[in-house]
């Protein structure tokens, strides 16, 4: 599952929703099922895909928690959390590098790239906006957390699908 500006063909009859900063193609409640459906399609088509990594699965859970906990603090001035934001971005970048080192893991690498994208709607974009605006409104924070959690959940489901584990 790939979040990219515009529409990206995933397979015959399947496409992924735009997450360009200027607009979101679908309301939040419709985005999550579309993302999960795309992920399930991709994982079903990848019979000889990448190997399951228990370490990657653990790391996803850890980074999801760290991301959400930091995002929840965005009503406070960014300057108070600069070090934590930089550390989180380094940890996310390290997870992307680890994913790049696993054969056949292109979907996960693409998702990590989007997670880090400073112009997107996931962690990188959220932190960029927080830094630019100094503080963020609770409604924006809540919606951004929903998107980030859905993205991490999709990545976790993709990792689990590699071994056929229940989601």
Average pLDDT, rounded to a whole number, is 80
Q: What global shape is seen?
A: globular
Order of helices and strands: EEHHHHHH
Strand element count = 2
Determine the fraction of residues in helical runs and give it as a percent range. 55-70%
Number of distinct helices: 6
By secondary-structure content and strand pairing, the structural class works out as mainly alpha
Major sheet, described briefly? Answer: 2 strands, antiparallel
Rg estimate, integer Å:
16 Å
- As residue ranges, the low-confidence spans are 1-26
Distance between the termini: 16 Å
Order of strands, widest sheet = 1-2
Estimate the strand proportion: under 5%
Characterize the structure shown.
With 167 residues, the protein is mainly alpha-helical. The protein is built from six helices and two strands. The chain has helices spanning 28-45, 54-71, 82-100, 106-116, 123-133, 138-161, and strands at residues 8-11, 14-16. Strands 1-2 form a two-stranded antiparallel sheet. Helix 3 (82-100) runs antiparallel to helix 4 (106-116). The longest helix is centred in the last third of the chain and has 24 residues, at 138-161. Residues 1-26 have low confidence and may be disordered.
